[in-house]
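Protein Record: Sequence and Backbone Structure Tokens
======================================================
Scope: a single protein chain, as residues and as a discrete description of its fold.
Tokens: labelled as protein backbone structure tokens, with as many entries as the chain has residues.
Position: the record begins directly beneath this header, with no further notes in between.
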Amino acid sequence: MTASIRIALAAMKHEYMNPDAPAAEHRGDIEANLARHRFWLERALEREAHFVGFPEFSVTGWIERPEYALPLDGPVVREIESWARRARVFLATGFVERRGGRLHNTCLIAGPRGRVGVMRKVNPIARELRRFTPGREFPVFRVAGCRMGVATCADASYFETFRLLALRGAEVIFAPHANSLGAYGNCRDGWFRWRMENWPYFTRTCCVAVAGMSCAGRRARPRAGEAVLKYCSGGLVMDWTGRPLARLRGRDKREGLLAAEIDLAGLRAARKKRERTFNAGAVYNRRGGWLWGAY
């Protein structure tokens, strides 16, 4: 089994065609966002990353009109999957998915053999519920020699998400966000403080590592006339003891890349000592809560 995984996270800024338009008319600048993905992917590969993560909504931006959303079988998703195949790396990114007549807040994971799977956000915030359909599943994927779950933004604020994914075998939880966090200063340091309020407890109790980041509001190198978005940036990789391994620092909201090595062998040894904790037969159901004996 793989003894470790090197994770790189890109707190990327996505673009809108017209950021001054009403929210219902926002359309993501897909070509610009794909170019930004390629830029950060190249830098992550220079860090010899096994897995590269991008933020929530980073392909499309937060859009609410079905005609601007992406189908899973469309050319944009196929292009992203082709990057993973060519680079022989695992990567994850977020977009608004059009699935039948519904919209989902979706995270795609791709790898050297193409699509690994998708996770649709289960706990949308109030504004999302106006347009987005919640997901109903908590899948766990095989990624670069480990088992990985996904907790998108608000999903990563609930202990039961970490607990359920750990029960299902997840060793690392990838947690993409799109946050502004005005009460925390709308900056990288504020995002870190916010996540340190609960993630150390979640990771220690569930014996799982977590790697997450937020969209950025500014480019890494500011450009003249650049539209500054509300997002705060920030990123953090934490091991199963609640110890931060890497983070983005600063009182600004610029893009950034962080990388860290997670000791999977150590995590597995710690989990084996607590084997009984992971024998509980539980499934989390959005309507019924915890259903014992169904796992």
Q: What stands out?
A: The CA atoms of residues 12 and 36 lie 7 Å apart. The chain has a mean pLDDT of 92. Residues 4-292 form a domain with the Nitrilase/N-carbamoyl-D-aminoacid amidohydrolase fold (CATH 3.60.110.10).
